[in-house]
Amino acid sequence: MVAAMSLFEKILKARGITPEKRAVFLSPDYEKKHDPFLLPDMQVAVDRLVVAHDKQEKITIYGDYDIDGLTATTVLIDALRSFGFEHVKSFIPNRFVEGYGLTIDAVEKIAATGADLIITVDCGSLSHKEIARANELGVDVIVTDHHNVADTPPPAVATINPKRLLHDFPEMYEKFVLKSKSAGTASPLRAPDNCEVSSLRVEDCLSEASSADAKEGTPELSRRRTAGLAGAAASSSKLYPFLDIPGVGVAFKLVQALQTVLPGLPIGQEKWLLDLVALGTVCDVVTLIDENRMHVFWGLKVLAQTRRPGLKALMAVASVRPKAVSARSLGFGLGPRMNASGRLETAQYSLDLLTATDGLRALEIANQLDAMNKARRSEQDEILKAAIIQAEEFADLPVLVVSAPGWNHGIVGIVAAKLLERYKKPTFVLEEMGEAAKGSARSYGDFSAADAIRASDDIITKGGGHTFAAGVTLPTKNIPAFRKRVNDFYRSQKLMNQPLLLLPKEDSEAGLHELDEALVDAMKQLEPFGNGNPQPILKSTNVVVVNQRKMGTESQHVKLTLEMQGHKIDTIAFNAPAHFFVEPGETVTVWYTVDVNEWNGRRSVEGQLLHLETND
User: In the chain, what are the domains?
Assistant: First the structure.
């Protein structure tokens, strides 16, 4: 007789984790890291940095003001100093002064400091004019980024962005993963003198002239290599296997590549950077599969024993125990506090925290960030209330676009996410600032916020981002036209049943008798949880509500006690919709996650209620 499959085994099967893949998934092997030289322009970037190292040039790392950009900036600051670069500075743009990404004003400020080289992190792929201006001022630029790309890369020495491969070879990838297993086998790092390692490096071996250009770090080399990219890659079976790595992941790959040519950071010691990589990866909400999963899996272990005073202080302020740190700790504990400074004032505070060497100073900054986060939440609540009133006016449209003066554009992205959750619609929230308006978008399903912005190019000032999160700046007078344009774009996509995509999808049906601490412990093996690898969702059908308890200052939360065949479980829903407040005696079908709750020394398995349907 074949033994019945356990609930945990059903979850593994639902996620495609076969017995052959189980060990690899549950315990990712760091040594299976992908070759960094498979990324576009990695070799030319390394060549240029070797020149900078030999000449001890002045380098400015230009980071974004979100956590991905801040952690990527810190990764390069740490690594370049380990490699012996003596003149490394950073520049974090102010959301309210320079705005997002590279700006001509910022480039001119950096050039005025005597910088020879700018390395962007988490931005720069669409900064053609800004990089051209840097070149005019005699400053070279290396772009490291992961955002959407243009048909033609900017005039940088190198543009290291995995999305270039998706742009050039879309048929080779599915959901950012290389289709052909043989084409993208993970391999150990290889020395840069191996010209067979990557199709993107074949041209390095073609002539002495290329080598000479590399030593000079000329833009001509970049142009020649870019021109040869498509033909070289098309003739090879080597492409980077996974493209959804965040900005901090791209920066980390640059560090791995530099380790093959420069002393100072022996291979293996770069693992101490994984606490930063994990933080940026989780908070940028990229998919936690493949290399991202490996980085976060091991990064959490590094974070549990981090050497960084800033991260130690931030965990203390956020009540996160280092030995119990999880992806959720990063996304809901550390992340919001670090983002608060950039949303309200300047992200430099958060960079100062990450780079702090004194414990007392780090604690001072951490407390400051905590206070900022509380202020952010208060301001966010006020904006949300006003935005809901306005959203009701446009409730019949498939895409919401709301705006008003005084809505801090550092916070409106969070408000857009709240409105999306409430109305089940892609949402743009804008701050009107006189003649200009600036804001953020959140989307889901098959509707790309970035593509909607691109469809509005003629009526906006600038914009871009990801499918599910994007930013836009436009003349305030064009807001009505923009609202019409993005809604017309939505309708042109002929999307069907999009709200259904927001409903939770169960990994398995479950009986309440199967819910115990052993199951919770088994499911923890699947951590870190996040985008692309969520906490397992269970579905229980025909359960009876035996008790309802309203909680919260406005009775906005509900706890339901459910029963099936004599077995009970408490389930909680925070900010629950009205139909979750089910009266005792009714029969329902529920979707939920489970965890162990400990209160006054008593441990019990409880559920977080995600969705509920009453049974007629």
Answer: 31-170+187-268 (3.90.1640.30), 394-502 (3.10.310.30), 508-614 (2.40.50.460)
